[in-house]
Amino acid sequence: MKLSAFQTMDPLLLPGMVNTALRNDCEDLDDLVRTHDLDREALEKRMEGIGYRYVTTTNQFRPIVRD
């Protein structure tokens, strides 16, 4: 499955796919969106909509902790 389909990808699969690409192929989120020709703002919005936010220090999308 290609990351370019992130808008319609199953929300249970999307974080794993994105984080795998970040871990294995990309230095950071900027590199990921450049490599896969993605709209960073749209990706971050989609990930936030399913409860994930990018964490620079771990180079991962992590669940948003709500108080």
| Overall shape | globular
Order of helices and strands: HHHEE
N/C terminus separation: 34 Å
Mean pLDDT equals: 95
Alpha-beta classification = alpha+beta
- How would a crystallographer describe the biggest sheet? 2 strands, antiparallel
Tell how many strands the DSSP assignment holds.
Answer: 2
Please give a handful of descriptors for the protein shown:
single chain, about 70 residues, alpha+beta, two-stranded antiparallel sheet, 2 strands
Topology:
Blueprint: H1 14-25, H2 29-35, H3 40-49, E1 52-55, E2 60-63
Antiparallel strand pairs: 1-2
Structure description:
By secondary structure, this protein is an alpha+beta fold. It contains three helices and two strands, in the order H-H-H-E-E. It has helices at 14-25, 29-35, 40-49, and strands at residues 52-55, 60-63. It has a two-stranded antiparallel ribbon with strand order 1-2.
In short:
The protein has 67 residues and is of the alpha+beta class. It is built from 3 helices and 2 strands, in the order αααββ.
